[in-house]
Amino acid sequence: MLRIDRYEPVVGKAAIDELKMLAGYLKGRAIQHINSTAMGGGVAEILSKITPLMQELGINAQWDIIKGTPDFFNVTKAIHNALHGKEVVITKEMWKVFNDVSRQNIREMNLYGEIMFIHDPQPIALIDRKSNAKNSKWIWRCHVDVSNPDEKAWQFLKQFIDRYDAAVFSSPHFAHRMKPRQVLISPSIDPFSDKNRELSQKEIDNVLNKYKIDPGKKPIVCQISRYDALKDPVGVIEAYKLVKRYVDCQLLLVGNRAADDPEADKIYAQVKEAAAGDPDINALMVEDIPAEINAFQRVSTVLVQKSIREGFALTVSEALWKAKPVVASAVGGIPLQIKHRYSGLLCHSVEGAAFAIKQLLNAPEYAETLGRNGREHIRQNFLLTRHLKEYMLLFLSLYDKDNVVTLA
Ligand code: UDP
Questions:
Q1: 147-204 pLDDT, tens digit each
Q2: What separation in Å is there between the alpha carbon of 27 and the centre of ligand 1?
Q3: pLDDT one-digit tens code per residue, 221-242
Q4: What is the pTM of this model?
Q5: Ligand 1 close to Cβ of residue 293 (< 6 A)
Q6: What is d(CA 138, CA 132) in angstroms, rounded to the nearest whole number?
Q7: CATH topology assigned to domain 201-381
Q8: What's the CATH number for 3-188+383-407?
Q9: How many CB atoms lie within 10 A of CB 22?
Q10: Of ligand 1's atoms, which has the minimum distance to the CA of residue 45?
Q11: Cα 67 to middle of ligand 1, angstroms
Q12: What residue spans define the domains of the chain?
């Protein structure tokens, strides 16, 4: 059985037939995805799932990673923060580090895609190679919340963006004036991945034992995210402390490191400090084991995503897919997933998050309804199959009019 056919009971036969039909028009085409980390964060999560499916459908899709130095990733993290509107100083020396490492990648990388699919700012300068490969098409895929970027950082990137054939964003709020065609495509989750598939009770118990978590003790409020200031883990602790005055519960924070994110240890130290002295807070720094994340989500009573800025937040889709009630900030791509009071609760502050968490802990039936609606919303809009279809339509649309397929 083809892997793609497994999705049929979830999304319907017509959706799968459509994918096969579209893939037929792209058979053998070389699509090269490039990003900056093989592990950690949503981009790696998506590429690890979508690339094999494209291959199975007959597209020659590959995924490569740029090389970077610690200095380079310090600079790209500063750019990332600046794009999210944070005030950061990016010095001349820092831009030089970015340009030097970019030039090295431009010189050394094997770029063979007929369609070059460049993810996020780190590899953006590879567009310099476009002139050597005249027939190739270049897509810049922005996973970052650029609704309100620092102007200097944006202008720096824009000189590259303007040379692409298309730019893809996750939310309409991220649109800007630019030369390339802009396309709105939201990310997605894979319902059959280890992170999202059903788990047996034994698998769940193994994770609970490993991390000494007892869901029977008190309801679990949980946030799963890289330790990053923009995910506001300390704000989650503050919200939990407000909730705790009224409803007894435990807080589980789960986070990891990404190869291209140098700030995780600093933020983790801040979290440990904020959590000190409370035996009901468990702040874990974990390795990348998807089934464990799945188990953490399944044993939680309420999942939180209290981000200050957010590209999309796959963690919200993952939680909703498990029919969990979610409290999340109304930023970036989150409102696409959570319709307030229908498929979760949106918040705008620590106090707002605390109010919403308390409400869900006190009203399990209401929480269950939100979770159920959330799962259906994800099924209809944010599964891998929809994502794959929109990417294939984008690829086809990049070619001459004669090559564009008209869908009846
Ligand atoms: N994640 C993980 N382990 C962790 C924390 C997060 O595997 O300790 C995963 C999470 O389940 C999700 C991805 O990393 O699949 C994060 O994607 P998201 O879009 O939420 O945020 P990003 O990190 O890309 O900003």
A1: 999 999 999 999 999 999 999 999 999 999 999 999 999 999 999 999 999 999 999 9
A2: 32
A3: 999 999 999 999 999 999 999 9
A4: 0.94
A5: yes
A6: 12
A7: Rossmann fold (3.40.50)
A8: 3.40.50.2000
A9: 21
A10: 15
A11: 22
A12: 3-188+383-407, 201-381
